[in-house]
Amino acid sequence: MTTGKIFANWxxxxxxxxxxxxxxxxxxxxxxxAFSMDDLAKLIEHYPREHYSLVKTGAKGSSRVWREGEIxxxxxxxxxxxxxxxxxxxxxxxxxxxxRRYRDMIERMFGExxxxxxGFDAPTHQAGILISSPDAQVYYHADLPGQGLVxxxxxxxxxxxxxTQPFIRPExxxxxxxxxxxxxxxxxxxxx
Length: 192
Ligand SMILES: [Fe+2]
What we know:
By secondary structure, the protein is an alpha+beta fold.
């Protein structure tokens, strides 16, 4: 495991905004060997079946059609190659429970945050690795507070909507908290 700081440009304003507003930070995690294509390919090859989701995504603008599939006997590099051609999305769920290297990174990250945000209490946490096609899209949804995205490679465009009505209603939040149905909230194109 390498040492050195994970957050490269943290300043006092980030400390003040933390947990109140979405914030964007530079980080160094992409330099970790565990995120090299070779290491990711190996991780994919040995990932327990019950802990990954391989999803065929719908084309942009299509209705919400997702089909789940299996990696089967493909080598890790072949899986990554297939994803690069489009229409796929691989979620290595709960990687922090499967592989120590990623848990160590997340723990170091929370350690740095705790040193910068007074009163920050490192939460019980879970993290997964998403490997998605250039054309992959995620549908309008809401996550409960406490989510983070660590972008490692490539580009991702994130749309953030107001956390008020009509974009989300109290009964949606209740459904998400109780039943985990975070993609089941109504979306209108004009929201964008
Ligand atoms: Fe999300």
